[in-house]
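pasting for ref
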Amino acid sequence: MRAPKAFREPDIKQALLIAVGVWAAAVPVFMAPTFVAPQPAPAWSWLAMGLVALAGLLLTPVLLVAVRVADRWTGQAPRLVLIVATVVVVALIHSVIDTAVHDILLSWFHPDARRTVFVSDEGRATPAPMHYYVLMNFIILLWVHAGVTALGVLSRFNMKMRRQEVATAEARAAANHARLTTLRLQLSPHFMFNTLNAISSLILVNRNADAERMLTRLSDFLRASLGPEEAELVPLASELSAVSAYLDIESLRYDGQLNAEVVSEEGLQEARVPTFILQPLAEQAVAHAVSPPQRRATIRLQASGEGADRLVVTIRALAADGSVPSSPPPLDLTAVRSRLAVVYGGNAGVEGTSDAGGFTAIARLPLKRDDRNREGVQ
C-alpha cells in the first residue's frame, strides 16, 4: 500500500524524518530525571514514554498538512492562525492520550498505586482530577509540537529554496539554449544572404534611404541578439525592440507586401519577460503573412496588461486584401511553451491558430516589473 501523494513529497519526507528523530530523542530526555532518582524508574514507564512518543509521531502528519495548507494561503496572519491553532489542538489531543496511556499502564502494573492527591486546608485529601494531568502534559507537549512544526516549516522553506535554485538554473540554461538556437537560425547564411542581398538590390535601384534603414535595423537586430544580457528575464522594451527590428527587416525585404506594427501599453516597458520568447512567434507570423507570395498582409504585435498581475502579448497576421493561403504553415508552439513552463511553471501559457482565417498567437504570463530600473528613476 503506497503512502498518500502528499506524504511522498520531498519536503514532507524530510520533515517526517526530522520528527522521527525528535520523538526518538524525546523518550530519554523525558526520562532523564529518573536517572538521578533514589528509585529507578519501572520498566513500564519506559513503555509508556515510548507509546506517547509514537502517538506524537503519528500526530505529526496533521501538523505538516496544516503547514502545507497554510503555505497556499495569502496573508501572513491567516497562515499563522491556522498553524498555531493546529499545534494547540494536536498538543491537547496528545496530552489526553499521554494521560490515558499512563493511567492504563499504571492500573495494569500497579493497581494499588496512589496517584497525586490534593490536600485542602482542612486536611481533606482528594485525588487530582483528570484535567490536572492533561494540563501538565499539555504545557510540555505544546512546546514539543511547536518545535516539530517549526522544523517542518524550515524544511519546507529549504526545499522550496532548492526548487527555486534548480528552476532558476534550468531557466538560465533554457534561455542560453534559446539564445544560441535563435542566433543559429537568425544569423544563418540564408538569413544574412537574403538581408544583405535585399540591401544590395535597394542600392542598385537608388533606394538608398530604404537601404540605409534596412542596414540600420539589421544593426539593431544584431546588437539585440548579441547583447551582453545573460539573465533569463529581460525588459519588455528590449524584447520588443529586437522583434521590431526583425519585422522591419522582413517588411523591407518583401517590399510593400508586409506591414508590421509593434505597440505596447504605457507603463509596461519595465515588465520582465523571458529573452527571445517572442521571436519564434514573430517568425511564424511572417511565414503565414507571406504565404502565398504577393499577398499583402499586416502583422500586429501588441503588449497589454490584464488585471494588475498579468501581461498579455498578442501577435496577429491578417491579409489586407482578404486573400487566404491555400495551405497555411503549421503552428508550432512547443518551444515557447517549454520556455514558459521552465520559467513560470503552470502560471503562464501560449495558445494560437494558423489557418486560412489568419495567424494569431497569444502569450499570457505574470507581470513582473524591473524594480532596478524603477528604483533608478526614483
